[in-house]
């Protein structure tokens, strides 16, 4: 291992170690709709368990139905209690939440589950709290199949509301220099037929093929793969 002397007379050692990452959010993190691979987080966790991989540690902390307020409430406790390797806290947080906030309640023109102005405040607070803990990445929502609404007989999701909620999230990430993967735009560019083939019959959750594609979208996300490939830390050895 290479040891460098610093101007403060301390020495630092470069050590390669697995990253510890927590993924917090809703059913897109949980992986609902993928009975084969368990969702994109689980698929990525399995890739990192291969002998040839860097061996990063990935915790799936997705909860179905979570909105921003629920993720905010559990953020710091989940972070503090998901350390590994000598009780160190995680190196990064992946957030993915917002689609449930955008839903219309009871009818297509009902009120949003979370009022848009309230959501704007809550997402800003979530991003600030997460960024104060460690490095943050944000995985955006996928576009729903509007023709399959309502979901669970009471929730009406639509692209117009999804766009508003994802945009204020994307802009909040941009202001804080938090990398944001815009799946709404990425999947939208692939066309209606492609999207419908990659969503469950409920019109909301990705299916097995959808999560396979989502994993590839994550693996093709340069800023994230660059971060995970540089798992080298300078540690004080004085």
UniProtKB/TrEMBL annotation:
Transmembrane segments: none annotated. It comes from the Bacteria. Pfam families: Lipase_GDSL_2 (PF13472). InterPro entries: Ester_Hydrolysis_Enzymes, SGNH_hydro, SGNH_hydro_sf. Residues 23-212 form the SGNH hydrolase-type esterase domain. This is GDSL-type esterase/lipase family protein. It comes from Laspinema olomoucense D3b. The lineage of its organism: Bacteria, Bacillati, Cyanobacteriota, Cyanophyceae, Oscillatoriophycideae.
